[in-house]
Design a protein that fits this description.
Length: 180
């Protein structure tokens, strides 16, 4: 017997589980890829909101505490900090981009495997019933739709993250150029 508090969860996840089952095993792999890339996106957002501003403030304070800003040594220090910022800001962005680009491919793989199973059923049953074929083809295209939706959302978020990181890097460089 299930606990009463689990009943609303069953009602919430039942349509999702039915959709995933209709799309086949590839749709579960697609869901795993999407979950990982969204975890990486959340990690990047948390870094940009909480960690990077503290590091940026520390670099700017250290720069303004320096007595001279024009020597080769000072320039090398400033470029080193900008390089560290670039590496820290762009961490995981390429992984997110690759995972987003995998989503449509997994969707197409799901469609191909779904179509193979439809044709297999048609061959074993010897049926060419249009209703059976339409139903099978409809179910086979679900992974493509899911892959495209996941890729579109991921492309948008990735582009925004890249733009934000470039802007933050340029602001840091500008702040390190200025003197008090």
């Amino acid at each position: 017997m299930q606990a009463d508090w689990l009943m609303p969860l069953n009602d919430l996840f039942l349509p999702l589980i039915e959709f995933m089952d209709q799309g086949g095993a590839v749709l579960w792999w697609l869901a795993a890829v999407v979950a990982v890339y969204w975890l990486l996106v959340i990690e990047r957002i948390l870094y940009l909101v909480f960690t990077f501003p503290k590091q940026r403030k520390q670099w700017i304070e250290q720069w303004h505490q320096r007595s001279e800003h024009h020597s080769w040594h000072a320039h090398a220090i400033k470029q080193g900090w900008i390089g560290q910022a670039h590496i820290a800001l762009t961490q995981n962005l390429n992984v997110i981009k690759v995972m987003v680009s995998i989503c449509p491919m997994l969707g197409l793989l799901g469609t191909v495997t779904g179509m193979i199973s439809v044709f297999d059923v048609m061959a074993t049953q010897g049926s060419s019933d249009p209703k059976l074929m339409a139903s099978g083809i409809s179910l086979a295209t679900l992974p493509t739709m899911a892959g495209m939706v996941a890729a579109l959302a991921g492309m948008f978020v990735h582009a925004r993250l890249v733009k934000t990181c470039r802007l933050l890097e340029m602001k840091l460089e500008k702040s390190l150029r200025s003197q008090r």
